Amino acid sequence: MIRHILTALALTAPAAALAQDEVSIALDWTLNTNHVGLIAARDRGLYADAGLEVDILPYSDTSSTALLAAGAADFAYMTSLGFMSARAGGADITALWVTMQHETGRLVYNSDNPDITRPADLSGKTYAGFGSDWEDALISTMIEHDGGEPVYDTVTLGTGAYEALATGAVDFTLEVATWEGVNSEILGRDQSSFAYADYGVPDQQNGYIGTRAEVLAEKPEMVERFMEATQAGYAWAAENPEAAAELLIEAGDFPNEELVQGSMQKIVEGGFLRDGDVPVGTIDAARFARMARFLFDSGVLSGTDGAPLTWPGEVSDWYDQGWMAD
């Protein structure tokens, strides 16, 4: 394994001499705690020790998945939906890693709203959304699973959804428990939530790191070094959440440091980053397939003509974790 080679190299050459392969990874969003392992691997010298000079590309108007598929980045950090949509649509990209071992998203509403006690109560209510087909598939599934009619009004507000909910202008929205959820707690908002997996939606993993098939084929040793150093960065963050939060704060521009610190604690204490003895970054084959099937069956995944894609019958070739093998 390449880790043994790296150990030998580290004993015979300084890190600077090994930093010869320049690689890049595009982020899916502005820097946040989902990316903490990348920052840890870079700023703690793990990439340098692996003979890599890694450029972490900031979020832009072009999605990380599109940048990867177009060859503008060697790797990409991608949302589950972003990756699966691109792969289903024919992009020759492969997932190598997944960050969050369980769904961090949830449906949230104000606790003092007497009209909402279960998902079925969302029928006829107003949802503050973000403009994706995934949202309707998710919410409709939850309402139907609870015995309600999936009929509700939607106003697309983007990040303005959270303020609209807090003021009572809308009835419910979706949030990431490890970020917006933490922020709501800091602001003292009294909100309640429903977990997707409790109402018919598969518990998904999220935060994929992937590359193109040609990179895997032409530079397998580089891919292995990058992924092993990345895994070491996330493993360190899982074991040292406070220090990891400080490292991330130093690397970014965060107006609320308490949010970063609280988010790291939520990630670690909630078992999102490390699930028992399972190594960080492990893709669960069964859950991967269940979520892919859910997206196909819900009509979320569509072709260039906008028509829903047909379930291919197998998605095991969409990911490759051979770099993890001993």
Task: Give a structural overview.
The structure is a single chain. The protein is α/β, with parallel strands linked by helices. The protein folds into two domains: 222 residues, 3-Layer(aba) Sandwich (D-Maltodextrin-Binding Protein, domain 2); 95 residues, Periplasmic binding protein-like II (D-Maltodextrin-Binding Protein, domain 2), CATH 3.40.190.10. Helices cover 40% and strands 17% of the residues. It contains 14 helices and ten strands. Strand 6, helix 7 and strand 7 form a beta-alpha-beta unit.
Strand order of the largest sheet: 2-1-3-10-4
**Which CATH architecture of the largest domain would you pick?**
3-Layer(aba) Sandwich
User: Can you give the mean pLDDT?
Assistant: 93
Number of domains: 2
Annotation, overall tally of beta strands? 10
Stretches with pLDDT under 50, minimum 5 residues: 1-19
Tell me the structural class: alpha/beta
Helix share bin: 40-55%
H/I helix tally: 14
Q: How widely separated are the two ends?
A: 6 Å
Query: Looking at the structure, what is the overall shape?
Result: globular
Strand content: 15-25%
Using the coordinates shown, work out and report the CATH topology of the largest domain. Answer: D-Maltodextrin-Binding Protein, domain 2
CATH class of the largest domain: Alpha Beta
Order of helices and strands: HHEHHEHEHEEEHEHEHEEHHHHH
Main β sheet profile = 5 strands, mixed
Signal peptide: 1-19
Keywords: Iron, Metal-binding, Pyridoxal phosphate, Signal, Thiamine biosynthesis, Transferase
Family: Belongs to the NMT1/THI5 family.
GO biological process, one term: thiamine biosynthetic process
